[in-house]
Amino acid sequence: MNKTLKISFSLKNTYRVNGILFSLKQIPLLKKLLPAALYKARGLKIFANVLSVLWEIGSAFIGKLLYVAAMVWGMSMLYTELPDRRLFLHILLFLTVIGSFANTSLFNPSKDKYYAIFLMRMDAREYTLVNYFYAMFKALIGFLPFILFFGINRGVDLWLCLALPFCIVGMKFFVAALSLWDYGKRGFGYNENKLSKYVWGGIALLLAAAYVLPAFGFVLPERVSMAVFLLCIPLGIVGASKVLSFCDYRAINKELLSGLTNQMDSTAKARLVKQMNEKKISTDTSVTSNRRGFEYLNELFIKRHKKILWNSTKKISYVCIFLIIGVLMAIYLRPEIKPKINTMVMTWLPYFAFIMYGINRGTNFTQALFMNCDHSLLTYSFYKRPDFVLRLFQIRLREIMKINAVPALVIGGGLALILFATGGTDNGLNYILLIISILCMSLFFSIHYLTIYYLLQPYNAGTELKSGTYRIVMTVTYFICFFLMQLRMSILIFGIMTIVFCVAYSIAACILVYRFAPKTFRIRT
Fold first, then answer.
1. Are 281 and 308 in contact (CB under 8 A)?
2. What is the C-alpha to C-alpha distance for residues 242 and 247, in angstroms, rounded to an integer?
3. Which of 208, 246, 248, 234 is nearest to 97 (CA)?
4. Range from 210-214, 291-295, 357-361 carrying the lowest mean pLDDT
5. Residue 272 pLDDT
6. How far apart are the C-alpha atoms of 523 and 375, rounded to whole Å?
7. Which of 4, 33, 429, 468 has the most crowded CB, counting CB atoms within 10 A?
8. Number of helices (H) and strands (E), helices first, in the chain?
9. In which band, very low, low, confident or very high, does the pLDDT at 500 lie, cut at 50, 70 and 90?
10. Distance separating alpha carbons of residues 355 and 481, to the nearest angstrom
11. What is the dihedral of CA 207, 209, 213, 218, to 10 degrees?
């Protein structure tokens, strides 16, 4: 077991270090400074190993901190009329059930499993068990400090806070055992990366139970939550025994990795994504356009890729409409919550920067552009002329703005309606600013994703993401949006700031694309 764990760590660390070194080499400012024989440089390898170790340690705690702080503790703070302890346990219980199905570790088709089991011929059972129990140990120690801190803050007893991480891990063991039992019975493996529509439906219902029921004043009794949590410990012991006694891990891993068994690397994954996208592209030969030039090219692209570009936007819009109706119903049934929600709408506008970041379809749009259009046309020199680049950039920006504007209008209009239903505002301008500022956030992300696509074009000929700078920009964008979640600012101030910033960014983006994109908008080598 110890030998397997060491090999597993060594394997993960090797490809993680190589990934870090490759990303460093892609950063323009470092590209010329780093040696050509980058992977032989001892100092850089030590630096990358330090980053890798820090990542391993951080992965045990950072995700758990954000999860407990934002999803459990933070959301429980919104329902001020409900008992703190009951609400904390209520939300945590339903989210734990979701996590036990959506984040199993045992049924995650990852690179290291393919390398170790199928290329290095390691014992599948031993490797799977060692890594699974290690993942459960990380979950246990990762949850413990934050459940203690935030749980005690919400009035949960110390002994229960100490027990809750074991309960969470116990539920994961039990669900994993059920999945293994189901595999033995039906011969069908569970894959957490390919959840069925029924599982997604169950997740949606559990999320509604976690967050919507408290809005109507319903929270599980404290004893019920405690009983279910504590029951997970003996169930977890039963589940662990099933996990240990299961023998056919090679077969189940083979099924998990069946889509990538030819070559488990980024090229294969990129090829798989491309194949999946191609199935959604219309092959109707009657699709045509009356326009000319780049407008003709763009309209054909939009029509043939309608499923890829618009389906997710429609689904997001429907979910937003459902949530807005839910909030309006809660206001109608419980008028006493009006002042609280009114205050939230008036001061929580910066929070929606993160929401707009999350629902923006910029990544899907640019990925589809490259895989099914620019991948071929970038081989022609005329396609990179400055005036042509800027013209096509503006056309595409118009299209991505349309795609992202639909949920933005739903959210902006819904917030204005909720503000009116909860007592309104003395300044009628706030209604207009709510809608316009949400639209401007949507516009910003549309411009942002398309601009960095043109300036950093991260894909190579095999449609692999190969730009370290692109990843850094995406990471920085995420953390800025996460920081904005913590701000509380009036609609008037933040709305005006958003509009001004969006206009300035739009002008700067056009200038940058015109000046630099003819050189940077190319297939990466």
1. yes
2. 10
3. 208
4. 291-295
5. 47
6. 7
7. 468
8. 22, 0
9. very high
10. 9
11. -150
**Quick check: 424 pLDDT over 70?**
yes
Q: Estimate the crossing angle of helix 468-484 against helix 2-26, to 10 degrees.
A: 100
Distance CA(451)–CA(508), nearest Å, equals 10
Residues 6+ apart with CB under 8 A from 333: 216
Which range among 72-81, 236-245, 434-443, 450-459 shows the weakest confidence by mean pLDDT? 72-81
Specify the higher pLDDT residue, 488 or 501: 501
Cβ proximity of 264 and 111 under 8 Å: yes
Residue 182 has pLDDT above 50, yes or no: yes
- Does the pLDDT of residue 291 top 50, yes or no? yes
Distance, in Å, from the CA atom of 493 to the CA atom of 522, rounded to the nearest integer, reads 40
Grouping H, G, I as helix, E, B as strand and the rest as coil, residue 187 is: coil
**Cβ proximity of 327 and 215 under 8 Å:** yes
Cα dist from 70 to 76, 131, 157, 465, whole Å: 9, 28, 21, 30
pTM: 0.62
CA distances to 71, 95, 181, 338, 437 from 191, rounded to whole Å, are 24, 19, 14, 43, 40
Q: Is 328 helix (H, G, I), strand (E, B) or coil?
A: helix
Residue with tokens 């033995």: 184
Measured distance CA(93)–CA(213) in Å, rounded: 13
The string of DSSP letters for 396-450 reads HHHHHHHHHHHHHHHHHHHHHHHHHHTT--S-THHHHHHHHHHHHHHHHHHHHHH
From the number of C-beta atoms within 10 Å of its C-beta (0-12, 13-18, 19+), residue 57 rates as exposed
In tens, the pLDDT along 38-62 reads 556 666 566 666 766 777 777 778 8
Query: Half-sphere exposure of 380 toward its Cβ, with a 13 Å CA cutoff?
Result: 8
* DSSP structural state of residue 265: S
* Helix 351-359 / helix 429-456 crossing angle, nearest 10 deg: 50
**Cβ(388)–Cβ(520) below 8 Å:** no
